[in-house]
Amino acid sequence: MFTKALEALSNLYWPLLPEAIIGDFLRNRRRGDGDLLSDVVNSVTGANTNTFFVPLDGRWDGRSIKKLLKNNGIPMGSWSTYDGQLFFHVHRDDAPRANALMKSAGVDLL
Question: What's the mean pLDDT in 6-11?
C-alpha cells in the first residue's frame, strides 16, 4: 500500500502544484464557493481537471495547443508525453470549451 501511495505521488509534477492550488483557490473565490482545503485536495489529486490526449506524430505539438488555448482564455495545466501520446490537463470548468475549440482547429484528440 505504501508503494502505491509513493508511486501516485511520484506522478505529480510538483513545481506546478503551488500554481494549481493558488489558481483553483482564486477561481473558487471569484465564483464564491469552495474552501481552501477542498481546493488543495482537488489540485493534488487532479479531481478538478480533465485530461486530453493527442498523438505525438500528429500535426499539433504541446506549445501550439497551449498557445491555441491561451489565446482563447483557457489555461493549460502540465503536459507531458507517454507511449507516443501527448497528454495535458485543463480545468474541468474549461474542458467542454477546450474540447470544442481543439476539434474546430483540427487537433487530433484521442
Answer: 56
Query: Hey, what long-range contacts does 79-84 have (CB within 8 A, 24 or more apart)?
Result: 80/13, 81/56, 84/55, 84/56, 84/57
Domains of the chain in start order, with CATH, are 1-47 (no CATH), 48-110 (3.30.70.980)
Query: Residue 2 carries which side chain, given as an amino acid letter?
Result: F
Scanning the structure block, which residue is given the C-alpha cell 505521488?
A: 9
Phi, psi for 73 (deg, rounded to 5): 75, 20
> Edge-to-edge strand order for the sheet containing 85-91?
49-55, 85-91, 76-82
Name the pTM for this structure: 0.66
pLDDT in tens, 59-96: 888 889 989 999 998 888 777 888 888 888 888 888 99
Which are the contacts of 85, defined by CB distance < 8 A and separation ≥ 6?
Answer: 53, 54, 55, 56, 110
